[in-house]
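[scheduler] slot 2 assigned
[scheduler] job type: sequence-to-structure, two independent chains
[scheduler] chain ordering preserved from manifest
[runner] begin chain α
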Amino acid sequence: MGELDGRVALVTGASRGIGAAIAARFAAAGARVAVSARTMAAGTSRLPGTLEDTVGGIRAAGGTAEAFAADLSVPEDRERLAEQVREHYGDVDILVNNAAVTYFTPVADFTERRRALMFEVQVTAPMHLAQLFVPGMRARGSGWILNISSVAARHPEMPPGPYAGRGGTVYGMCKAAMERFSTGLAAELYADGIAVNSLAPTKVVPTPGTLFHHLTTEDDPNAEPPEVMAAAALALCRAPASELTGRIAYSQQLLAELGIARPTR
């Protein structure tokens, strides 16, 4: 039997990168996986990777997955997504908030439209989706919410080093808000048996997004494979809230703490 047999997982931002890797790992562990993003098919995004690719890979490996296109910056899309997933699979046991919209621009040049969009997708949407799915989790006495964060949430060291020129302040602010949301919600839901955690890569992960923003390269020897995040996500989403909740975790450190071998691919 798989570690997630009988559970339904929704992974947002799952058309590529970390989200796609988590979805594949959960499906391999026996979960019925719902994947969501804006990009359903090829030709609709400047980045490679689609929901069709993710679902196709999962099914080819013998897993169960279904794709649901949604723009998480739109409240009505979030509500529709929740309804569609429930209609197809029933109540969601595991919610992984991975979707993100990212602009690396210095604060002085940041437009209000971009700031509002980033906050809507990376802060408001995770809260709204939690509100939509927590009642079902509470009724069953268990559930898992995992918010995917970033080392950008940390305060940059002073005096400023290379970080100062990357324009990641607003991105880091969004992720810091997500982490505070995670710990607060974990406290609120502990008595209900619902685990809430935040997970970030220890090192930059080569994904279409990080490659597009020139944060790493395909052959970076210090980069972290997305499978490491997937393994850490599985560890957080199979343990009961009494064991693992309210954590601001980093992938490699968490796997070492739990005695889990780090995947290489």
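[runner] end chain α
[runner] begin chain β
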Amino acid sequence: MQKLQRKAGLLLHRSADDAQVSLLLKDFEDGDKILKSIIESVKAFRIAWTELLQHASGMATDFDDLYQYIHGDPDTNRRYHAATRDQLAKAKAFKECLASCRDVIIQELADVERRVGGPAKETRKHIDAFRKIIKRREDRKLDFERYKSRTVALEQKSTRSERDNNALLKHQIDLDVSEKGYEVADDHLKQSLPGLTKAIMALIPQLVNSQCMIQNTLLGHYYTALHGFCQQYGYAIPSSEWTQVQTEFDDVFPRVKRDTETIGSIAKGKAITQPFATRPDSLQTRTVTHKNGIGSRSSSNGALPAPIPAADSMPPPAYDMSLKPTRTISNNSYSRPTPSPSVASFQTSSEYYNNAPSVAGSQRTPLSPRMQSGGLRPAVSSTSLASSVAAKKKPPPPPPKRKPSGLQQEYVVAQYDFAGGEAGDLPFREGDRIRIVKKTGSINDWWEGECGGRTGSFPANYCKPM
């Protein structure tokens, strides 16, 4: 019960700490944050150096493998310029140089944990133990504030009953006890926190100094190994100018390119003989992909819906509620209309048979009623087949064009979902077609439209013209 009361006390107005105690607590928290940052930095430092050594060793191994003799057909080696003994020796020496450097640096990396990470973690353990003392002091403060608020509330009552007087007496006793406990806890912090904070602040420069010394040692090993290799095999220190490097590259690159292009798997590979396959735009907008991965066509008029925006695209535009008309529609329920099949999506039987795809280059003929019902004839003569084809009913003529109506209707297509937040709104889904009933001259306004048999207001910037 007391723990719940203290939790509730954290939500109330808190009194200020003593100025000296508040400053000590702030210095204590700052020291803890610095130690935590040092521990995380040491871990990242070790990971970074380990990955650097792994990549360097792998690069040297790949160089050594590339310069090796190609075993197999002798004609293959005659067509390419084999590496000289000097190149093979350089590749092998570079591999051995980085391997020995890696072994030395990995041993030095163990000192990072021993000299920096270990002391920082040990100090944080003592800090965590001292946090219990700070937590008990915070509990004493919460008890003091709770009893003080109860005492003040009863003292401010103009008329108190006998029960109130008894409660006031009890709260005053509790207030005296909690105040003494709070003062004792503050005095303990004033005595112990300065020494602990001073020790933490004195340790931090030592840890940073050790980190810098280890970093210099690692860089020294790495530089010494590479410098010795460069001196042994005549590489310039410092390196040559960029123009000289580019000139040497331009001299060597044509020969390497020519040798590479003579390799059969590269010269006649798929990347050379076939172009990059790109998906047509017509296929990208063919279907609407829902969240469950199932594609479906738009339900309005058989038209193809607009492509769905990508996950990282911009959110729907904001609409101004102040521009919304005040017209109210009583029915606020929304149910998406059942997709009705379009007239253009059906085909007559004659159109189907005229447009039926061929199989194996032969024209398929429609089945007779008897064959459709399951009865099969053993054979059909060519005369009867010709007569049946001649007796087939001619396809109907195309329907005449519709006369344009006097009133031209205007439609828009929804680009985003709109659920409608108030009565009179016209909810819709992305891809729905909306007939405009009334609109203004601005796209950043509320228009009136009809969709699925419902009429209402909708934000115009959620749609685009058809």
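[runner] end chain β
[qc] chain β: The chain is about 55% helix and 5% strand.
[scheduler] slot 2 released
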